[in-house]
Structure formats: C-alpha cells, structure tokens
Amino acid sequence: MVGEHAHREIRDGCDVIETVVSNTDPIERVAEPLLSADRVTFLGCGSSYWSGVVGRALLRNAGVDAHVEYAPEFLYESPPIGETDVAVGLSQSGETTETIRALETAADNGATTVAITNTDGSTLAEMAHHTIVTPAGDERAVMATKSVDAVVTTLYLLADRIGGSGWQTALAGATDRVEAVIESDVSEVVSVLTDAECAYTLGTGGAYGLAGEAATKLGEAMLLHTTALPTLEINHGPIANVAGDVVIWYALDNAGAPVSDHVLDGLRDAGARTVVVHPHGTSYDATATIELPASAETLLPALKLTQRVAYAGAMELGYDPDSPPQLSKHVEIEGI
To answer: C-alpha angle 326/238/199, rounded to 5°?
Structure first.
C-alpha cells in the first residue's frame, strides 16, 4: 500500500520516544565530554542537520557554546576546531559520506568526537570516541520520522543532563501528547498546502530547526518547493515574492504581540497564505492554525504534527512518502 511504511513509522515514533526516555545510560556516557568542552559543533545533512539546529538551541540554553554546520560545508571549509572541542556527527544510517568525512576532519584536528546514529556497527558509530545508538529500529520509509524523534529526544536528554533544565520530567508523559497530535485533524492545513507551488517555513531558536525539518518533509513527501528561514528573516527579501505562497510559522518562542503582529500583518499585506502552529491558549489571525496540547513543553508534538501534515499532504496529492523520486534512505558518495 502506498505510504504504509511512513504511516506506521510516524506512529511507532511515539513508542521510540518513550524508549529513549526510559534508558538514559547512553546519555550519561556522552554528557561528560560535552560538559568539559569549550565548544560543541553538530554536523549533519538533511534531517540530521536540522536536528542539530534543535540541539544547538538546547545546549546553548544549558550554557554550552554550541554550533551547527552542514557536514559538507565543515568538510570543505575546515573551520577552526581543536583539542578542547567536541564534534557531534548526526546520521540515521551512520554511513552518510559527508558526515563521516567531517567527523574524521574534526578528529584529525584533535577534537573529541561523538556519533548519534540509529545504526549500531555503522562506520560513524565505530569511528567516534563516544557513540549513542538510538533505538528507532529499522526504518523503511525514505521520509525519516521515528529516527528523527529518537535523535531530538536524545538531544533534549543531553541538554537536561548538562543544564538541569527539567526536560526529562517534561518528556516523561510525551507519548500521550504526541499520540494526540498524530490523531488531530490537519485537513485545514493540508487543503492550504495541496494547491501551493512554493512555501516558506519559519521559526526561531529550536523552532527554526523544526521549520527546517518541515521544509525537508514537505519537499520529500509533497514535492513542494519549501524554504526554511528564521522568523524575521522573511522580511529581508522573500517578503517581496510570497504572494500566493504558503508561509508556515512555528510561533513557539513566545516572542510577544509586536513580533506576531509584524510578521502576520506583513505576510497578509504581501498576499501570502499563513499557517500558524502555536501553543495552547494563544490565538493568531491566520489562514489556518493548529493549537498544540496544553502540556507541549518540548518541540516533539510539533515535530510529530509536521510529519503528519507531510504524510497527509502526500497522500492527498497521490505521492508516495515511502519512496520519493530521486531519494534513497542514505547517501554515500564515492571519492570524498
């Protein structure tokens, strides 16, 4: 059946989150080098890069000097990194060529290396000084879902271990919350997206990582040309050409009414159709809105909502999220 693997794996992600939270031993082993690092740099491609953007925000909030780089950019630019730094390679397969080479470059420069991957025995897992193997299990759909859930949950737990931010407590009941989001009605948002030619996704901090993941998912599943931007960056150029496009704003940073009015009024005046994903108890004047559960302290419910919308949109358009054109589950490039 078209989309059957993605459909199942989106739901399996709820159990994966619970499994990660119930076993923090791998977190304890990796937290120590991150605690003592002068700087932590996340490296990844695709969804793994955007997970790194979430990780950067979480670790910065925990007091860590955290950064994120596209793995191929790090590989070819060779930014300064040394013996007091930690490089964290993120890869579902553990075989993504650019990420492997970037982590090797970091190690060659003396950095401590950490791998977070879903594949035990993979090249990335074997080469790093410290490794966390996430328990997402086999993932058959090209559209990564439960493996992303596992990585993001792991990053929340790392931030909690480092900064004592209370995320583990917040994650304790996450399964019920994400299950509720998966079963929510997204038809209004899907109807806005299915006739779109282009879209923008916006967010700030960790929600910018979520916006990037949304752009990835909508591109893969719905074949929709989508660009992720920090929220206010939409005003610096793109606002000129958003007429008729869809702009999805993850309004999860409590920026306040002046920012909200500025963003939505500007987009409305420019002719964009707006979708706002927002916390419980807030309201926005947009083309379509989705209110998250009252207890959605983490980004995980919004992440699952994003997966659900991408899947539903693909099915509405007759596309197969299990096997998007020109994509494979992992990318290996010979010669680099």
So the answer is: 40
Cα 165 to chain centroid distance, Å, stands at 20
- How many structural domains is the chain composed of? 2
Q: Encode pLDDT of 101-113 as tens digits.
A: 999 999 999 999 9
Confidence of residue 331 (pLDDT cuts 50, 70, 90): low
Give a yes or no: residue 323 inside a domain: no
Flag whether the pTM goes above 0.90: yes
Does residue 60 share a domain with residue 116? yes
* CA-based radius of gyration for the chain: 19
d(CA 74, CA 7): 34
Q: SS3 for 327?
A: coil
| Phi and psi based region of residue 107 (left: phi greater than 0; alpha: psi -120 to 50; beta: remaining) | alpha
Same domain, 230 and 262: yes
Residue 328 lies in a domain: no
Residue carrying structure tokens 């509720």: 180
Q: What percent of the chain is modeled with pLDDT above 70?
A: 96
Domain with 270 in it: what CATH number? 3.40.50.10490
Look up residue 98 and give its two tokens: 């650019």
What digits encode the pLDDT tens for the residues 37-66? 999 999 999 999 999 999 999 999 999 999
Q: Which sign, positive or negative, has the C-alpha torsion 73, 34, 52, 56?
A: negative
Could you tell me if 41 and 134 lie in one domain? Answer: yes
